[in-house]
Write a structure and sequence with these properties.
Membrane-bound Lytic Murein Transglycosylase D, Chain A; globular; about 325 residues; two-stranded antiparallel ribbon; 14 helices; mainly alpha; 3 domains; two-stranded antiparallel sheet; single chain; Lysozyme
Length: about 325
């Protein structure tokens, strides 16, 4: 019997709980010697394409023992995954032009959001941070709502209240909203040089991971998830024709600007998928400040560059990008659309 299935059955029997047949949260699986996408997908009731898409991998990819894969939630009957248009992955990250590469084959279908208001039953591998991010809440809000210690471990099978809705209202923390974002580099300044960071790595992230980083940096999880999926399909190994890199498709010059002018936390690690997400989220927070918290305007500025957006309005490809991001945001549990 599959070890993970045996563990789930043991937990369920010991707690006298019935775990829903359709899992509703991501969890992490460590690849054992001899395992493949096909064998793991079969053990978890998924297709190879579903598992590959959830991890930003090719269905033909070979797995390395000791690496981890994210097991996505199985969809409820009648619920379809978001469909990404052929512009998925296109970005200029502030270079002010329409040069872009199409990674639609990599990001074929976005994972569905799994926590959206009402209540939620904790699944093996869940954390309070990840659940809060998917629900569009802070960890403190979710903990207070359920009378929990924010630092305590969660018990599988626990029913959590998620409140009456899934959205989070963005609140600016910048007393001079446009000052930082107005310095966003565009054109040659954004491009930097090929040897500068960030560096692509063969890593992928999950929607809960992106959402958790976003929530920790004051950005709506669903918006960050939408942009990360649109840009790269959660794949940190992606490099665009414009030399944008990683999960959030950050150009080298833009990376330096984020690192030097926006980041007030620990230095960004140039070869880290999670720090590529953090860098993109930090910039997105600045752009939300500059646009009064408008997700459409912030997404447009993320793609086209704030100064270009203010001077020229949205280019046609920017309009398509924003439309795609807002559609994805609603499907990741946000209010955009």
């Amino acid at each position: 019997m599959h070890l993970r299935l045996l563990l789930l059955l043991t937990v369920a029997a010991g707690a006298l709980l019935v775990i829903p047949a359709a899992a509703s949260a991501y969890f992490v699986h460590t690849v054992a010697p001899g395992e493949s996408l096909s064998s793991i997908a079969a053990a978890d009731g998924l297709s190879v394409d579903q598992l590959a898409a959830a991890n930003g991998l090719s269905p033909d990819a070979e797995l390395i023992a000791g690496s981890t894969v994210q097991i996505p939630p199985q969809q409820q009957p009648g619920v379809s995954a978001p469909i990404v248009s052929s512009t998925a992955g296109t970005t200029s990250m502030g270079d002010g032009d329409s040069d872009a590469d199409d990674v639609g084959s990599t990001a074929a279908a976005a994972p569905a959001s799994s926590a959206a208001g009402g209540s939620y039953v904790v699944q093996p591998g869940d954390t309070l941070t990840a659940i809060a991010a998917r629900a569009g809440m802070t960890v403190d809000q979710l903990a207070a709502l359920n009378g929990l210690d924010p630092n305590a471990y969660l018990i599988s099978g626990t029913a959590l209240s998620l409140g009456s809705g899934s959205g989070t209202e963005y609140v600016s923390t910048n007393t001079a909203p446009s000052s930082a974002a107005s310095a966003q580099p565009v054109g040659a300044a954004a491009e930097g040089t090929p040897t500068d960071p960030p560096y692509p790595t063969p890593q992928t992230v999950s929607a809960p991971e992106v959402g958790s980083i976003a929530a920790a940096n004051g950005v709506p999880a669903s918006l960050a998830d939408a942009i990360a999926w649109q840009e790269s399909g959660f794949n940190n190994d992606l490099v665009s024709t414009a030399d944008a890199r990683g999960v959030m498709q950050i150009l080298p010059g833009t990376w330096q600007w984020i690192q030097n002018d926006l980041n007030s936390g620990p230095p960004l690690a140039p070869a880290s998928a999670s720090d590529n997400v953090r860098g993109g989220v930090i910039m997105l927070h600045s752009l939300l400040d500059a646009t009064g918290g408008d997700p459409a305007e912030a997404a447009a500025a993320y793609y086209q560059g704030l100064s270009s957006l203010q001077q020229n309005g949205m280019y046609p490809d920017t309009q398509q990008y924003v439309q795609d991001v807002l559609s994805l945001e609603s499907q990741f549990g946000g209010g955009g659309g």
